User: What shape does this take?
Amino acid sequence: MQMVALLNGLVYLLHFFQPTYVFALLLIPERILHGEVWRLVSYIFVPEMLLRNGNPALQPLFLFVYLWFLVWMGDALEHAWGPFRVTLYYLLGMVGVTIAAFFFGGGGLFAFLLNLSLFFAFATIYPDIQIYVLFFIPLKVKWLALLSLLPLLLELILGSLATKAAILVSFLNYFVFFAPTMLNNLQTRAETSGRRRKFESRSSGEETLHRCALCNRTEKDSPELEFRVASDGEEYCLEHLPR
Assistant: This one.
């Protein structure tokens, strides 16, 4: 990710000398089919602020924050996963974005989803890290991720079928890496909840906790009764406990 950030900075500098240079790097399927295969990779080096009609005077500041945040996320993910898994995650994201561009259109529009998927991975692993939005608003990463998710959810609800498919395919890397863990967590929570309900039902009087295998007395029959599990695996009151 340090190399990606460095080349983003380089492309930004080159933009001052030749502004049209940027358009030769964007992910445009039609141009790729005409032999400009470098676009399959070069689009990740184009800073997003160059594609927006923002205030040129503020661009250097936004670029600094953007590159710093990219390196910071990359270092944190490498600490959690190692460089190989981070590279694999990013490459899978590039595959998803490319598929979305070729099959559903909007290569330039959806290219930013690649770094957004990286941010979602960072927020999933480090949800409680606090950052300062606009340098003075403290906000945990998980809440910033949820705010970033809102426009995508609106597009999934109100957008065209092609837009919905493009967004889902663009997050191929996130689904591959995190869906199995999420499904396993949901299954574990369901099992835990089932055991808790079973225990609560037994404690509430629907069932008894102890029953003597010989006389069938329970703790409800006599609260002072004590029970033990014998070597045969059965539970007995102390009066009938095998010697």
Summary: The chain has ten helices and four strands. The radius of gyration is 29 Å. The first strand starts at residue 130 and ends at 133. The mean pLDDT is 83.
